[in-house]
Amino acid sequence: MIEIKNITKTFNPGTVNEHKAIDNLNLTLHEGDFITVIGSNGAGKSTLLNIIAGSVPADSGFILLNGTDVASLSEHKRAPYFGHVFQDPMKGTATDMTVIENLALARSRGKKRSLFRWSIPNKDKTFYEEQLKSLGLGLETRLYQKVGLLSGGQRQAITLLMATISQKPSFNQIRKDYVKFNPTRRSEAKEEVERVYHEQKEIFVNSRKAIRKDSSLSLVEKNEKIKDAYGIFDSKMREYDVTKPVLLLDEHTAALDPKTAAKVLEITERIVKEQSLTTIMITHNMNDAIKYGNRLIMMSNGKIAVDISGEEKKKLTISQLLDMFSSASDNDVLSDSAILG
Ligand SMILES: Nc1ncnc2c1ncn2[C@@H]1O[C@H](COP(=O)(O)OP(=O)(O)OP(=O)(O)O)[C@@H](O)[C@H]1O
Ligand SMILES: [Mg+2]
């Protein structure tokens, strides 16, 4: 859970250019929330994400990550907890490095490791190949090409992978970290995570037994089914992984052609679901804001003007959203891309 409390940011204070970009903003993100953020140009959307990631310091307020204040941590120290993807495909990757080097670098994030003396073991190569294959863009054959040679869409897909690829902790580590990150409710947290672990383990072990016994299945089918059952166990436990990154997407498909943008959004949704990542996605595309996520936020003048979730969000139409948009931002200029959706 992330609690953003009383965040304020004024740029160029005390000058003629003084501008309050974030105005006493409060926002609580629940575990697994996928929030789409809309709002006119200059509403403060990017500033909010930058403050969360630590690239812009807030003037006041708190950012609590599972109860721990991260507002005082540097961007670098916060890096393992946040995956920040920007509009510009040039921003997220190192152009002169190969695809596999970029991925390996992202994966080792937050770990002490010399950049100069690292080689990528073969088993890791297979892992990266599989990850790239899952994007469905044929990038698994381009492991040793420099990222600078790839198209914007391909680079954005790789950036997305990099933002979410940090080493998966073991179930043991997940259980330990979950208790550590809930200092105010240690014993309940321990009881909760242990219960879920044992329940899910039992479900997995029982279904594995049943699959193995099922004589109508071939060996390959059995292995597939066991893998799926383990996947469910794994994703249940990942829900308790407090160290997995929170995904911050700042118009990450805005520079892509419509077809590629749709593909990258599809990849985004799949990664978010598979890893049950808490996600904030800024977009100017109203259709995407409605289609993706479980919650929608509209920002205006550094504040949250609208916050809709659940069934209400599912039923939302473009025209309703445009009405809210115009009443929330009377003084703001509605951008063309927002209208065209
Ligand atoms: N580093 C900065 N220095 C001065 N002013 C800034 C800085 N960054 C942002 N601002 C100002 O803060 C306000 C909010 O900017 P922000 O980039 O957060 O808007 P946004 O909602 O992301 O807009 P857009 O949809 O155009 O990306 C704007 O008026 C902007 O000019
Ligand atoms: Mg912006």
Notes on the structure:
The protein has 13 helices and ten strands. The longest helix has 28 residues, at 186-213. It has three domains: 2-87 and 244-340, P-loop containing nucleotide triphosphate hydrolases (Rossmann fold), CATH 3.40.50; 99-164, no CATH class; 171-238. Helix 3 (99-107) runs parallel beside helix 5, helix 6 (171-180) runs antiparallel to helix 7 and helix 7 packs antiparallel against helix 8 (219-238). Mean pLDDT is 88; it is low at 333-341. The strands form two sheets. It has a six-stranded mixed sheet, sandwiched between helices. A four-stranded antiparallel sheet has the order 2-1-4-5, with helices on one face. It has 341 residues and is of the alpha/beta class. The protein is 44% helix and 18% strand.
Which terms would index this structure?
alpha/beta; Rossmann fold; 3 domains; six-stranded mixed sheet; 13 helices; 44% helix; binds adenosine-5'-triphosphate; binds magnesium ion
The side-by-side strand order for the widest beta sheet comes to 6-7-8-3-9-10
Q: Ligands bound here?
A: adenosine-5'-triphosphate, magnesium ion
- Any idea of the CATH topology of the largest domain? Rossmann fold
Largest beta sheet, briefly?
A: 6 strands, mixed
Corresponding CATH superfamily of the largest domain: P-loop containing nucleotide triphosphate hydrolases
pLDDT < 50 stretches: 333-341
The proportion of residues in beta strands is 15-25%
